[in-house]
């Protein structure tokens, strides 16, 4: 058997081959392969990555149509494994997810030119949680649920870049905390500019969007949403409106503000739902 290759048998009796390598006293599994030759090639490639500083993430060249017609061989290892090995070689820390550490931040890679930037404080979390992309959103699997990573910044799942939060430097792949500015923290609240002044507009969805009102503070706008939702529920509109929680207010402060805030007459004038 070639170096770094081990024969194994599947439950159905089918033979296959595993490949692994040891580097800096760390035993690293390289994966399973259908043939001994493929497993051996994975070992050789990993050995080259770990011992050749000139081997970089940009060196990874998946096959194109032209390459296939010319019968060029594709890399033996998947790109995430390249990231793991190169990071271990350069930074001395073995991380199973495709992370490459920089000074005070790290990149989470999908391909050599497709990656996201995070603060080093998030290293432990993303070293144990793989990022999933779906429909332009980023998720991790946590306790059996798919969690939008925006929730780590206090942004609601429905948050939209440019409306509810901003990337300060304009880079939508930079998720460092200093680069995330939250604009709208609450359900139904939009921050707007009106005659050179910042106002907060509250809307609620009911057979279309109703403007609840415009308010001087974000807190008032959030409470106005709750008041509109409460009014509609009393009228028999059983839609499950989300609730805005304002932990910075005491119960008495909240009650006083709830009583004082005015909401749209259109909502007040709606008859009971039949």
Give a short synopsis of this structure.
This protein is of the alpha+beta class. It has helices spanning 36-51, 65-69, 79-91, 123-128, 218-234, 251-260, 265-269; strands spanning 5-9, 15-23, 26-33, 99-101, 105-111, 114-119, 131-134, 137-142, 145-148, 165-167, 180-182, 189-194, 197-205, 209-215.
Overall structural class, as computed from helix and strand content, comes to alpha+beta
Count the beta strands. 14
Helix count?
A: 7
Task: Report on the biggest sheet.
Answer: 3 strands, antiparallel
Q: What fraction of the residues are assigned to beta strands by DSSP?
A: 25-35%
Mean pLDDT: 91
What is the topology, as strand order, of the major beta sheet? 1-2-3
Q: Helical content, roughly? A: 25-40%
Order of helices and strands: EEEHHHEEEHEEEEEEEEHHH
Low-confidence stretches: none
Distance between the ends: 77 Å
| Principal-axes shape call | elongated
Q: Radius of gyration from the CA trace?
A: 27 Å
